[in-house]
Amino acid sequence: MYTTLSYVYRCIAWNLPNLDDHQRFPKLPVLNNPGLVMPLPVGQPLDLSPVSILYEGKTSRQVLERFLQQSGTASFLILHRNEVVYEKYAGGYTADNIITSLSVSKSLVSALVGIALEEGILPGLDSSILEQLPELSTTISSKLTIRHLLGMSSGLHYYEGVSPWSDDARIYYSLNLRKQLLNCETIESPGKYYHYNNYNLLLLGRLLEKATGMAVPTYFSQKIWSPMGAEQPASWNIDSARSGFAKMESGFNATARDFARFGLLYLNKGRFGNRQIIPEAWVNQSTSQPNFEEFADSTRYMTRRNPPLGQWVDSPVGYYKYLWWGYRNGPHQDPDYFAMGNLGQFIYCSPLHQTVIVRFGKKWGNIDWWPTLFRELSQQIDKPGS
């Protein structure tokens, strides 16, 4: 009864997710190494031209700082060639504030999966999930693989919405995510349809937990956060103090500057100094444009509510690959890629323009699609003489 009442209380009293959810949920520490902080030197301040903002199909030219203030943005950083060239905070937030990243967390999980695969802790992208999680043999397909989970093509049932009986709510507010995982069920062939589904992240978390013998936040701290030069310790929200399972899909908490450091780690092909933290091959593989061989059985994409996740994946310029979103730049140019969360949380990486943009906000704001603005800013910053 206590568990049920607590779940209902979370749904009603906490209502929708927000960037301060680290103040609500219990959490586990993600430790940094204070003696190994990656410096973020401040470069020449930018003199940006007005930017194009597309909203409800209409384009306007706006001063960036004014638009950010009106859009509910809490923090906005631009790093160009490893230097901070633009940094603004609003709404009572500062550089020291911890922020819940929501689904940006998924891309952090992708990095951890790449490390576990390289180390041989996980058996391989095309290994059957049931080989590691036989307790799910009566509900999920034997054909379901790690690759399907990473590509959001698992074929698992997922009911979206904000009501307490939706899967969105059950996963976000559950007090026992391992128990919730027993409710996942295959309803269509794995690899056939793209469908954004948070059960995929629970499965990846359970795989990592069983394979490493430790909580995912502890593994992340050892393999990424501590060696990558984070300035401050972070944390990972968990379902409950009793269960202690990390909220894989949405619960990582850190400062905007440290999220920018994670973006730089990817921009530098997983390397910090003379140490390879994330395998370079995985950085390339997880963010590059998907090829036919990887998704040969994908026939269509399912759509989802705003922001237009499914529509982006099915567009000529967009794609989704191993828990990263992609933005095609042309047939002979490296694509941009980004981690994205609810309310417009972003880590945007442009290898072509050596730029990382971090945006966290209280709401999405009056803009149809933030990555379009990030791409324009990346191009403007990298012009000769800028």
UniProtKB/TrEMBL annotation:
Annotated ranges, domain Beta-lactamase-related: 64-311
Domain of life: Bacteria
Pfam families: Beta-lactamase
InterPro entries registered for this protein in UniProt: Beta-lactam-related, Beta-lactam/transpept-like, Diverse_Enzym_Activities
EC number(s) stated in the UniProt entry for this protein: 3.-.-.-
Molecular function via GO: hydrolase activity
This protein's UniProt keywords: Hydrolase
Name of this chain's protein: Serine hydrolase domain-containing protein
Organism: Spirosoma flavum
